[in-house]
UniProtKB/TrEMBL annotation:
Keyword flag Signal: yes
Pfam families, per database record: Lactamase_B_3
UniProtKB keywords: Signal
PANTHER family reported in the protein's UniProt record: UPF0173 METAL-DEPENDENT HYDROLASE YTKL
InterPro entries: RibonucZ/Hydroxyglut_hydro
Membrane spanning residue stretches: none
Species of the source: Ancylobacter rudongensis
Keyword presence, Signal: yes
Record's protein name: L-ascorbate metabolism protein UlaG, beta-lactamase superfamily
Signal sequence residues: 1-30
Length: 278
């Protein structure tokens, strides 16, 4: 249910939140109107592949995406806003991002000493485990989150310990699943809305098992899936082999950098493997 007109967006947003409360849907994402569920494919769009270009080159209506490593990506908008996912002290982009998102599972997903030049440090959890919701506009980038639970080393559940962060720029919705430990409910799927790109942990052990991750990715129906959080080629190949029968094309790229746009989303849902090292 999109809010197409800026003048009525506040009214539409209030209506959506009211409906969410009425039907018990997760109200964590105010972006229900920002990343609405719709068909990304269109017969009027010429099929093009996402381009492998330096992320510094981002034209109008495009978003740059660079795989830094582990669970860290650098997102860059046409307006020059940069965001780093699961920002930590071990794997960092070479530039200081304006936005850094974090998750609490392990120290490779957060930093206790983020660079002081970062304008917005967004932790995906609260120490008291209460819900935490972001609805942040930074120039031409919007950031929101949907919280999920995680396990501790003893297998006990930590309520609201992980956030799925959603980034919207150039009418593209990019979701970073973080350290996801369980499948998503229909309310979660509805709250996330339309997603165009999903950054998915595929280790199959520390996060969600492969069967569970496949279930989540099929439910999200994103045209582009980019694997992350794999520890070696064997781990990655196991996921790709299991996913090959799910009507997804699989592409391996030589560059860790992509430039994406709505016009170049693949017609066939595609897993794009990027090498780390941006």
């Amino acid at each position: 249910m999109p809010c197409p007109l800026p003048r009525i967006a506040p009214l539409c947003s209030a209506l959506l939140l009211g409906l969410a409360a009425l039907f018990g849907a997760t109200p964590a994402l105010a972006q229900a109107e920002r990343c609405p569920k719709l068909v990304a494919d269109s017969p009027f769009l010429k099929h093009l592949a996402p381009r492998a270009l330096p992320a510094a080159y981002v034209g109008p209506r495009e978003v740059g995406l660079t795989y830094i490593g582990h669970s860290t990506f650098l997102i860059q908008t046409a307006g020059g806003v940069t965001a780093a996912t699961d920002y930590n002290d071990y794997v960092r982009p070479s530039v200081v991002p304006r936005v850094a998102t974090m998750n609490r599972a392990h120290s490779t997903h957060y930093s206790l000493n983020p660079d002081p030049g970062i304008e917005h440090v967004l932790k995906g959890w609260r120490e008291d485990r209460d819900p935490l919701h972001y609805d942040l506009d930074i120039d031409d980038l919007w950031v929101g989150n949907l919280q999920t639970n995680i396990r501790d080393w003893q297998g006990q559940s930590i309520l609201n310990g992980n956030s799925i962060f959603v980034f919207r720029a150039a009418d593209l919705c990019i979701a970073h699943l973080g350290h996801l430990h369980h499948t998503l409910t229909q309310e979660d799927i509805g709250a996330l809305g339309r997603l165009d790109v999903v950054l998915a942990p595929v280790d199959g052990s520390y996060t969600l098992d492969i069967d569970g991750m496949i279930e989540v990715l099929k439910a999200l129906e994103a045209p582009v899936i980019i694997p992350m959080h794999y520890f070696n080629e064997g781990t990655l190949s196991n996921f790709l082999t299991r996913f090959a029968g799910q009507n997804y094309a699989i592409e391996r790229r030589e560059s860790p950098e992509l430039v994406l746009s709505r016009q170049t989303l693949p017609r066939t849902p595609t897993v794009i493997v990027l090498p780390p090292g941006g």
